[in-house]
Automatic annotation (TrEMBL):
<dbReference type="InterPro" id="IPR018306">
    <property type="entry name" value="Phage_T5_Orf172_DNA-bd"/>
</dbReference>
<feature type="domain" description="Bacteriophage T5 Orf172 DNA-binding">
    <location>
        <begin position="349"/>
        <end position="441"/>
    </location>
</feature>
<protein>
    <submittedName>
        <fullName>Unnamed protein product</fullName>
    </submittedName>
</protein>
<feature type="compositionally biased region" description="Basic and acidic residues">
    <location>
        <begin position="310"/>
        <end position="320"/>
    </location>
</feature>
<feature type="compositionally biased region" description="Basic and acidic residues">
    <location>
        <begin position="256"/>
        <end position="280"/>
    </location>
</feature>
<feature type="region of interest" description="Disordered">
    <location>
        <begin position="1"/>
        <end position="33"/>
    </location>
</feature>
<dbReference type="InterPro" id="IPR053006">
    <property type="entry name" value="Meiosis_regulatory"/>
</dbReference>
<dbReference type="Pfam" id="PF10544">
    <property type="entry name" value="T5orf172"/>
</dbReference>
<feature type="region of interest" description="Disordered">
    <location>
        <begin position="232"/>
        <end position="320"/>
    </location>
</feature>
<feature type="compositionally biased region" description="Basic and acidic residues">
    <location>
        <begin position="17"/>
        <end position="26"/>
    </location>
</feature>
Length: 485
């Protein structure tokens, strides 16, 4: 999932390491070594232009303007942070709060958030008893792996990039592994570093390319990390570990050998064992304890709470959606709308109260399998219920859009750690409410309200001109108690 060709550029106005090191020593920034004013801190954090500034997908800083109502909070908040250094317990919390004020909703999660946090932390002074270069080293190590992607980074015999989707579980494993590698506990230990690089290597690619990844990526990454370590004059701590830090070694997550979901793992294990032996420089009991890189992370679905990046502003007023509904109805059908298809609703394990409503022109099972693989979430199907409802309906995409419009007052945008995308089709409603809405619009579309050319029949347009009345009638006819009052 790592595109080695891409690397993270710095956001605008972010301080260079030189600025960071010299912070407080120059007259422009602070009047003495320990003093810093809010304006200078704002400049160091790249906030002077009141823009989001997160690195977007196009590698450019996001130009979204910070809301006026947030600017006052930012100033107050920065003022309270002037005395912090990298060892302050509240620094991480305060910076996360700052992200909430500064970043637009597209950049509240995932790599843009992490990159910004890392940049910002480096702005604050190191405490006197900590090697000042360490946070910088960790940031440099993170950069060795490039921008996260969801596709295999292997190459075919013809030298063409594989680009096969690796699935949400591997994507999430890569994120977790990189975070471990950026911990001094790992990057300063040759044994652990070897192990975690192997874990990363088997997770960045599809199962066809694990051998290739172990033999090519591991030495390349290790070379870069050793160079960073050498540059910072940080040597391996393995010798000390053997005698003094036995306890901390135990904190490394234990591989769960029994939870493997894919039969191919065993095959991968067999195929990669050669490459694995090759990578570990010294035979050592510790490597056995760290285990097989394929099995390091347990094979399991993500059941953590969904990451909501945007919530509806009026979740208690269903009539705020009526304007959208009318607009959707009036729009002429486009080519996609004209196709038949299936409507479906599902929730994911661990997240009751949230439903996803979608449509597909293929089979629902196939679409569900794709969601499961890409997002690494266990789906619980809520609709269709029974064989009668599992039928093709005309203009399925339009039905989906009408359902989304009606429930837009409860719409949430979710950031997905599996496919690294935002999902826009999640609604904070009960399953019964979602089902009632899908049934209502399915019934309506089956009355053939559109003409052959795709335009709405005049009679329907007239009826829906009074949208409140129209919705009341629709709800009464279909038994949707929620809107029929
Ligand atoms: Zn942004
Ligand atoms: Zn591949
Ligand atoms: Zn996803």
């Amino acid at each position: 999932m790592i595109d080695a060709s891409a690397s993270y550029p710095s956001p605008p106005g972010s301080p260079s390491s030189k600025d960071r090191v010299n912070r407080g020593k120059t007259s422009e920034i602070g009047s003495s070594q320990d003093e810093l004013n809010t304006t200078a801190l704002k400049a160091l954090l790249g906030l002077s232009s009141w823009q989001c500034g997160a690195i977007s997908k196009s590698d450019k800083p996001c130009g979204w303007q910070i809301l006026k109502k947030h600017r006052r909070h930012i100033d107050t908040h920065l003022c309270s942070m002037l005395t912090l250094d990298q060892s302050s317990p509240r620094l991480q919390y305060d910076l996360e709060k700052l992200i909430g004020f500064v970043h637009c909703h597209h950049h509240q999660h995932g790599p843009p958030r992490q990159i910004r946090l890392d940049e910002w932390i480096s702005v604050f002074p190191s405490p006197p008893d900590q090697p000042s270069l360490r946070p910088l080293v960790e940031r440099q190590i993170a950069k060795c792996f490039g921008r996260p992607t969801t596709t295999c980074m292997g190459t075919s015999r013809k030298g063409i990039r594989c680009n096969k989707t690796i699935g949400g579980q591997k994507v999430a494993n890569c994120t977790k592994t990189i975070s471990q590698i950026c911990d001094a506990e790992v990057y300063l230990s040759d044994i652990k570093l070897d192990h975690y690089l192997q874990v990363l290597a088997v997770n960045v690619c599809c199962h066809f390319h694990t051998d290739q990844s172990l033999s090519k990526n591991v030495p390349a990454w290790k070379e870069k990390i050793l160079a960073i370590r050498n540059e910072a004059d940080l040597g391996p701590t393995d010798l000390q570990h053997k005698s003094t830090t036995r306890g901390s070694e135990k904190q490394i997550p234990t591989p769960n050998r029994h939870e493997s979901r894919h039969a191919s793992v065993k095959e991968e294990q067999r195929k990669s064992s050669k490459g694995q032996d090759r990578k570990i420089t010294l035979p050592c009991p510790s490597t056995d304890r760290l285990g097989n890189p394929h099995l390091h992370w347990p094979s399991q679905y993500d059941e953590t709470p969904l990451k909501i990046v945007k919530r509806s502003e009026s979740p208690n007023d269903h009539t705020t959606s009526y304007h959208d509904i009318r607009r959707q109805m009036m729009d002429a059908l486009d080519d996609e709308d004209k196709k038949d298809g299936f409507l479906y609703i599902y929730e994911v394990k661990g997240n009751k109260g949230f439903v996803k409503i979608g449509y597909t022109t293929r089979s629902i099972n196939k679409r569900h399998d794709e969601w499961t693989f890409d997002c690494n979430r266990e789906l619980v199907s809520l609709f269709p219920i029974g064989a009668t409802e599992a039928r093709r309906v005309p203009h399925a995409h339009r039905v989906e859009k009408l359902c989304h419009a009606e429930l837009s007052y409860r719409n949430n945008v979710i950031y997905c750690d599996g496919c690294l995308k935002e999902h826009f089709e999640w609604f904070e409603v009960s399953p019964s409410e979602a089902i009632a809405v899908v049934r209502k619009w399915t019934t309506w579309i089956e009355t053939k309200p559109y003409l052959f050319d795709g335009s709405l029949k005049e009679e329907e347009a007239r009826k829906s001109a009074d949208i409140d009345q129209f919705m009341d009638t629709m709800s009464k006819n279909t038994g949707d108690i929620r809107t029929s009052r």
